[in-house]
Structure formats: structure tokens, C-alpha cells
Amino acid sequence: MDDGETPLIDAKGLVKEYPARDRPGGVFRAVAGLDFQVGRGEAFGFLGPNGAGKSSTMRMLGCVSPPTAGTLRILGMDPARDGRLIRARLGVVPQEDALDVELTVRENLLMYGNYFGIPRRVVKERAARLLEFAQLEEKAGDRVEALSGGMRRRLTIARSLVNEPDVLLLDEPTTGLDPQARHVLWDRLFRLKQQGVTLLLTTHYMDEAEQLCDRLVVMDKGLIADEGSPRELIERHSTREVLELRFRLDEQDQATGKVRAVTGAREGERVEVLPDRLMVYTPDGEAALAAVTAAGLAPVTALVRRSTLEDVFLRLTGRSLTD
């Protein structure tokens, strides 16, 4: 966010607690004190594994779950006092599609417009534009139950835009979709971003965060581990390239020691040991692989790739996003 710009969303010390299921009278702290700001027109992400506190944060931002502590201002208003006014200016895409499967695609949009008291003529005009935006014109008269998963997600996003919101909240927008459907959805979200819509999304997909987010926070156990653009985070916490090595299970322990010895002598390199592979973080993956093979090691597979947000998360938390 640009310095001096009034944030669209401003959170300080944000905390969310729930009664602990396994401790009568105890509490579980899902969000443990978040500070972040989001500017108008930004695409801002919360990256982390399940249980990191992402969805609890989104429910507070959606004004459906009050913070336990801290301060939160959305569109300059206090959710505790102005929740109804804020919700009227938000679009929400939940993890699970909550569409009426017995209605047609067009009827889902028209009915949702009625909830906001939008005149029927206006809703019909918007529905036509949103059907085109979501690439669902040919399905307008079909019942929702006949749509694929990707089409349902596009309809859910289209429905969330009926009230022309200032902020669009997307909770794990592409979970469960196949790669092609995910890329189509990314294209739709990128178009919204180009139109100046402010996007807030949670995801545990590193490529999704890199594709869509101007800035993001890496979350773990209810806390922010770091914040920045995808490029800034990668440059701060990882190397330019990563060499992934897989060895036979009966060779892995011995190979790990040798790889550490080889890379320990090379400037700017380090090794992370995962259950199924070794990760050599290096400025030059091909040179690191040549050093490994020159030491007499013969990995089953070797892959040189660029660093990603997955590597950032591993560096910050000691575990992968899929753990």
C-alpha cells in the first residue's frame, strides 16, 4: 500500500478465540494478534496451511464473527457498530458454494440481487453482464445442479458481484478444482483486479498467491510470519534456485550427510531435509547438481527449479504448506 493512502482495511492486534473443545472452560486462539492494512485496488492474500487462522480472519473481515480483541476498520467503519453497512459493500465467496441448486444460473443471480434491494431492472442488467463475465451465458437457463465444479465457482463469484462491492473476499477460491478450471478462475479474478476491485483471498496454493497477490502475509498458527510481495518474500527468505534430490530410502541418511558436506563448502547454499527428498537452496542449481554428482552421489531423481512461496513457508515455519 502506498504511504499516506488511507487504508480500505486496517487491522491492529486482531485476535479471535473460540471455546476449546478438548479443555472445558479453556479457549483456542485461532488468530493471535494480526496487524495489516489493505489499500484500495490491491489484491491481498493470506497464505498458509489449514488451521493457520486464515478463515477465522476472513470471517472477521466479512463482519460475521466479531474479533475477541484488537481493532478493525473496514471502509472507515467499525464492524461492531456498522456491520450491516459494511456487509452491503462486500462481496463474499465462501469455501463452499452456497448456490440454490434447484434454480437456474440466471435465477441465482436475480434472487441474490433481491437480498440487497436492488431494483429488478438493474439486477437483470447486471446479471446479463455477470453471466458474460463468468462465461456462463450458454448455461443461463440451466439448473445449477447440472454445472461442473469450475462453473459453480464462477457463478459464485458472479453472484458475489451483484451488489458491485468495494471489496471481494475469497476464501480458498479454487480448492477442489482441476488445473484447467483453476486457470480459468484466475483469469476472471485477474480481470476484476484490472478493473480496480479490491481482492482479499486466502489460499494454501503457492502458485495462486504468486499469480494473484500484490502483497500477502504468510500465516502460521494464528500469527503473521512475514509480509510483502511474492517477489520480496522469495528474495528475502530463499535463493534464486532450488535443487530437489530424491534418493533410495536405504541411501537417504548417508546421502544427506554427503550432500550437506558438499553444499556446506559452497557459499550461499543450504539444505532442508524433507521426508521424501532433499532441498538444496542455491544460487545455481546446475552447479550444485554437478558438485553432488562429482562427489559420487547418484540420486534417483534430480530437479532444478526456481524458488517459490512454498520455499518461503518452509524457511519461516520449518514445514511445508501441505503438512
UniProtKB/TrEMBL annotation:
Pfam families: ABC_tran
ABC transporter domain span: 9-246
Keywords: Antibiotic resistance, ATP-binding, Nucleotide-binding, Transport
Topological type in the membrane: Peripheral membrane protein
Localization, UniProt: Cell membrane
Record's signal peptide: none
GO molecular function, one term: ATP binding
InterPro entries, per database record: AAA+_ATPase (IPR003593), ABC_transporter-like_ATP-bd (IPR003439), ABC_transporter-like_CS (IPR017871), ABC_transporter_ATP-binding (IPR050763), P-loop_NTPase (IPR027417)
Family named by the database record: Belongs to the ABC transporter superfamily.
Protein name (record): ABC transporter ATP-binding protein
Species in which this protein is naturally found: Sphaerisporangium corydalis
